[in-house]
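Entry for the shared binder. Reason: the reviewer on the internal report wants the predicted structure included alongside the sequence.
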Amino acid sequence: MKVCRFPLHLAVIGGALLALSGCGRRSESADSSLTQATPSTQTAPSTQTTPSKPGWITSYEQGQQEAKAGHKLVLLDFTGSDWCGWCKLLDKEVFSKPQFKEYASKNLVLVEVDFPKMKYVSAATRAQNERLAIKYQIQAFPTIIVLNHDGQMVGELGYMQGGPDAFIAVLEKLRKG
């Protein structure tokens, strides 16, 4: 099985180079206009961020609660949704496919742990995502951490060839222990 990930250290170095050159830096006015464009933040500051994929949530705690109640696995998708090529490919080839969506609806709670460059992320979600990246020692994107319904890590995946069938086969092995 071939697993490909974008090294996190390269993303950090690239981000530092952009910051030093002044490119990609958001001004306060850009941040506020992005915040105003987000409907959920027009009336009050939001503590949650809208996930980039339908059917996913961004709250780790909510994911844990749903998994425990439904005896499901939690799939944590550590992604750079708006810049990471392998993340976009994983979404296109696996997460957006009907086979995966059907499997997920019965067996998984899907939690997006996103590190975008251009998309708005609330301060609370950003802090949660950074804590999770440290907790699970994320070194590259995409990284998929799979937890059982008790919150114990049972697997770590990345991009793999074979589409939803190959991905589901690995998840089934993890689910059955």
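Summary line for the report: The chain has one domain: 44-176.
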